[in-house]
Write a structure and sequence with these properties.
single chain; about 500 residues; two-stranded antiparallel sheet; 2 strands; disordered C terminus
Length: about 500
């Protein structure tokens, strides 16, 4: 037996190098899965950051495209003599607000420091590099880089500014858009955005919920518009002999194209407010957003038919817009059935609101009821329909009255609406008052009658409707347009000018 053991030890000694090498390979093979797992985890994290970044940028582009929706909506509800100035206004406002929001607005809205419960205090004039981050406490959970977050939050500011002017079109001096737009984007909008998006007192301490901006974006824009409207006054001919006269828009198809563009853009507006693609909550928000809009359009159709026995095209579109505004605040907090209720109520509110307000306020596109009243309803609806699980998931506030039996969340929502309205109205009214006393808010009566296209821009939006155009049939007799398809006139018979009597 001892001999066998000795032989075994001798054999092992001879094979020791081989065994050591084999053991090394075995250890290396055992470590490979660990290294691969580490690489997989890093790759997964990188993929998540990329997905969130693409999601935030793409949805931001959808929100930016809503500017086209506002342009078409306002063009359709305007008269032909004022359509060009609408497009110029949209482009100019988008431009000045871009610079103002980059300079200071974003820092006031989301930056750390300062009197944070009141307003942000860092991140002014930001610079970005690939993947760079900033100290943005309220949106730090999103892995998207700071540049993506800036762009997404900016386009929200631009939408709010676009809402302001719906109440004031067809008689406002163009310079007013610039003089008001810069401080609005730099301070007024960021002040409210900080409170309900950026971690301010209303959001962080009181627990007020506004997932995507029924108050921050829509009520803020409508409130500023109301302040300007009160100082501006109605269009010429709107109110005569104690009655309100209808001044119809010139193109309902364009107006409804605007509605559809806005509806499409809202799929960036609400779902994109997750700032996150990987938790998959955005898909739920797409569903509730669409259901609310559909319910609002149907409810508005039924309401206007009940009142007037007509199916008003503009009211149907406004019903969809009002419902989208209303679902914006609760979109991340409610279930589909509640979205239908919220949208339906908004559809009724906008019809009744337009008919009532039109008797005293000249709001050409119905911005006050569609964005103001519906924005208030949407914000308050969180206090009724927010599910406790989604309140916990989002980390803001608690469940609504129908789930908890408590009025606490409804009270927080009411305070948010009241504080936001009062703040924006005071600041906007004061700013518009200063503009009115200096450069003036309103064009002259003659310029308004002629149309802002020609008086402000020197060019008609629809030239052939107002002036002779080469190649057209309305040229003066002494400068006739030659029709290349007409047979030559007999010699001695002067050719008739285009448009003359046969």
């Amino acid at each position: 037996m001892s001999t066998r053991r000795s032989d075994l030890r001798t054999a092992l000694k001879k094979r020791k190098p081989v065994l050591v090498i084999a053991a090394g390979f075995a250890l290396l093979a055992a470590m490979i899965p660990i290294a691969v797992a580490a690489d997989d985890q890093t790759a997964t994290q990188a993929a998540g950051v990329a997905a969130d970044t693409v999601w935030v940028i793409v949805t931001g582009c959808l929100v930016m495209f809503m500017q086209a929706g506002f342009a078409m909506l306002e063009v359709g509800f305007s008269r032909m003599k004022n359509v060009g100035t609408v497009v110029a206004k949209v482009v100019t406002n988008l431009s000045v607000s871009s610079i103002a929001y980059w300079a200071v607005g974003f820092g006031f809205a989301f930056g750390a420091g300062g009197i944070f419960a009141f307003i942000g205090g860092s991140g002014f004039f930001p610079t970005f590099s690939p993947g760079s981050q900033m100290n943005l406490p309220a949106i730090a959970a999103s892995t998207a880089p700071a540049a993506a977050k800036w762009f997404f939050e900016f386009v929200f500011c631009a939408v709010s500014l676009a809402i302001v002017w719906g109440t004031m079109i067809e008689r406002t001096k163009f310079i007013v858009y610039i003089l008001f737009g810069i401080p609005f984007a730099a301070f007024i909008y960021p002040l409210i955005s900080h409170q309900l998006f950026g971690g301010g007192f209303l959001m962080a301490t009181l627990g007020s919920q506004d997932f995507a901006g029924s108050t921050v974006v829509h009520l803020t824009g409508a409130t500023a518009g109301l302040a300007g409207l009160l100082l501006l006054g109605p269009r010429i001919g709107k109110y005569e002999k104690g009655r309100s006269n209808a001044i119809p828009g010139h193109n309902m198809p364009l107006a409804q194209l605007g509605v559809l563009i806005l509806w499409f853009g809202w799929f960036g507006f609400n779902p994109g407010s997750t700032l996150n693609a990987t938790n998959l909550h955005f898909a739920d928000i797409v569903v509730v957003t669409n259901l609310a809009a559909a319910a609002g359009a149907v409810a508005a159709l039924a309401t206007i038919y009940f009142i007037t026995k007509t199916m008003d095209v503009g009211m149907i579109g406004n019903g969809a817009i009002a419902a989208l505004v209303a679902i914006t605040a609760p979109s991340g907090y409610v279930e589909p059935w509640a979205a239908i209720v919220i949208g339906s109520v908004a559809g009724v509110i906008v019809v009744v609101g337009v008919l009532a307000l039109d008797k005293i306020l000249d709001d050409p596109v119905g911005a006050l009821p569609a964005h103001g009243l519906a924005g208030i309803w949407g914000t308050l609806s969180c206090g009724l329909f927010t599910t406790p699980a989604l309140a916990k998931f989002n980390g803001v506030g608690e469940g609504g009255l129908f789930y908890t039996g408590s009025f606490h969340q409804l009270g927080a929502q009411a305070i948010a609406v009241t504080a936001s309205f009062a703040t924006v109205f005071v600041l906007s009214y004061g700013l518009f008052w200063i503009i009115k006393k200096t450069v003036g808010l309103r064009v002259s009566a003659r310029e308004e009658m002629e149309g802002l296209d020609i008086s402000e821009h020197g060019m008609w939006g629809y030239p052939e409707s107002f002036m002779p155009v080469p190649g057209g049939v309305y040229r003066p007799a002494d400068t006739p347009t030659v029709n290349p398809h007409r047979s030559p006139e007999p010699v001695g018979n002067p050719a008739r000018s285009e448009g003359s009597a046969a």
